Amino acid sequence: MLSPTELDTWQRDGFLMLPGFKSAAEVAAVCRRACDIVAAFKPGVNNSRFSTRDRSQVTDAALLASAEAVHCFFEEEALDAEGRLLVPKDRSINKIGHALHDRDAVFDAFSHGPALAELARELGLLQPQVWQSQVIFKQPHIGGEVGWHQDASFFVTTPQTVTTFWFALEDATLDNGCLWVMPGGHRGENGANGVLREQYCCDHGAGTLRMQALDTTPWPTMAEAVPLPVAAGTLVVFHGLLPHCSAPNRSANSRLAYTLHVTDASAAYAAENWLQRSAGFPVRGLA
Ligand code: FE2
Question: Measured in angstroms, how far is the CA atom of residue 260 from the centroid of ligand 1?
Fold first, then answer.
């Protein structure tokens, strides 16, 4: 149960760090499973990279197909111009997404349970819906930069409800590309929600994606940002409007993390959101 101080921090800063939320055994189980998924993954001729700096590198079809599947995306720097691997396969993956929490028994167990359901309730998610799960590898030496963004851009709801659950599966440090956030950046004046700067829109008929600017409020400077180095097992929860980023990883250590993106079913989920579920594969809660 969150303390009054933690709830105040959540309201004021837009994020909360909960060390030891997951046990070493729970973390080890999903790390092992992630390695097994990568080992079983067969790179094809149309290897899909993932880069937040240049979203055109992700083929729209590969991303859309992963909404209800478990798919491996390569690091931008893991492939040459012809799409051939430049590093060993087990060091080449940027992330696995986006339905691990529903498609894989090990990740399903990690992503659900009374502790998460209780936490979501305390944060105001009364009818949580888990849309997306990702293992983010941040590989040694080639782990890509993730520029300033707000996760609400990818999960627009009215009102805004998306909340990110970011689990450190390995120690996240300044060297290997820990999260940076702008404390309080989720708020506007008078305690109201801040602005959403851009929206990732999908034309589901055409199968195309684009980032659309919504507001000209500048992104924070690094002087306004704080780093969040955390130990493995820590859960960082943050508000969908909180600006955050992470540096490239040029260190010799990976920085594995697992994320869940959760909205509230009482809010309207935008038809333009890229991630939609078919009728036969409904979105579930956290319990
Ligand atoms: Fe994010």
Answer: 10
